[in-house]
Amino acid sequence: MRLQMSLLQKQSPLYTHKSYLLLSLPLVLSALSTPLLGAVDTAIVGQLGDPVYIGSVAVGSLIFNYLYWLLGFLRVSTSGFTAQADGAGDSNGLVMAFSRPFFLGLGFGFVFIAFQDPILRAALYFIGPSQSVAALVEQYYSIRIWGAPLLLANYAVYGWLIGRSKVKMALWMQLLLNGLNIGLNFFFVLGLGMKVQGVAWATLISEAFVFLAGALFVWSKVNRLSKDWRTFFHAESFVHMLKVNRDLFIRTFCLLSVFGLFTAAGAGRGDAVLAANAILMQIALIVSYIFDGFANAGSIWSGRAYGEKNGALLRHTIKLGMFWSFVSALVLSVGLAGVGGHLISLFTASEEVQALAVRYSVWLFVFPIVVFGGLLLNGIFNGATESVPIRNSMIISMIVFVAVLYGTRDWIGNDGLWLAFIVFSLVRSLMLWMYVSRLKRKLD
């Protein structure tokens, strides 16, 4: 049967700056908990003094970023399909939007466990860390890999909550994950002296606990909806989901290739540079996830606009999203210029690493300005399940990144690495903006 229109849908014509902020700010807080996990891991092992610990966590986290972000489409597409089904009042569509990616995530997770050894060997060969870093990465990896099915299935949980505008539950899940991880990190690493293995165990236990809580909550909601399980393998719907996910997979592969090349280039300049770059990248990721919060709000409203066939709502969503993302970008740029050095000191006790991080931190000041548009529009296109522009913009941006990286690495050293990353972020924003008019015309 058809669902009654939600309160959010009824209020769509009254969409204001206030309603936008009331929706987006909890999503910003929720999104921030993801990079804060990596930041806390980096900061805690940074207190051990030796940059090899920061480098090993950075490399180990990069490997899991590859595995998990490659399947990040499970979360992104789930929120888009869920928002559209909610806007159209399609009860069965809401059930399928969750159940398909949920079981797909579990399956991929068990595949990663089965092939864990060749995955690790290939990753270490590509990144090329020092032997001391590689040995610690193996310890970290061998523990965290067992959380793969839980984390990937949890993408569907989180995406469904976002698509249904249940932002408070999504926020509490992320805060629980972050808080538990921080507490366990202090206990295992600084209390029990488990070092890198303690970081891995803290993350694994936190992910498992939050998965159980989130999955039970969503299944309780799904079981109340009218559904027809015979449509689970409905050919047309499944093919559409796979096409969207294929494009998002390519997009994520390109993005992770950029991060991989970035990390490998830093590793080639020594453990201290690798650690300094890892700290600065953690700060950059925190900035990015702030904009991801606005992007998630944009995804909800653009998905609803497509479900309602409401072109005015889509245009208004883009307008308000760009306005508040730009304001945030200005505030973040000024803030990083003022307190960047103090932030760096929180991540490591090594004076050598601190000095290098401060030396290259100037690149962070311009990062919010060049990245905000691309991240906001990424959410808008995701909600509309228009994945081709996302894919194309990322492919071109990656090509530009590689060209700048290899064109400047022997000229300006590690500065060339950061220049390439800034140019990559700018091209990504500009490319997506070129597709906006075509997106609007589809609802006119």
Structural account:
The two termini are 29 Å apart. The chain has one domain. The chain contains 18 helices and no strands. Helix 3 packs parallel to helix 12. 86% of the residues lie in helices and 0% in strands. The chain is mostly helical.
In short, what is this structure?
With about 450 residues, the protein is mainly alpha-helical.
Number of helices: 18
Number of domains: 1
Helix-and-strand structural type: mainly alpha
Q: How much helical structure, as a percent, in the residues?
A: over 70%
Q: What does the oligomeric state look like here?
A: single chain
Radius of gyration: 21 Å
Taking pLDDT < 50 over at least 5 consecutive residues as the criterion, the unreliable ranges are 1-14
Overall geometry comes to: globular
Mean pLDDT rating: 80
Percent in strands: under 5%
What's the N-to-C terminus distance?
Answer: 29 Å
Order of helices and strands: HHHHHHHHHHHHHHHHHH
Total number of beta strands: 0
Reported for the largest beta sheet, the result is: none
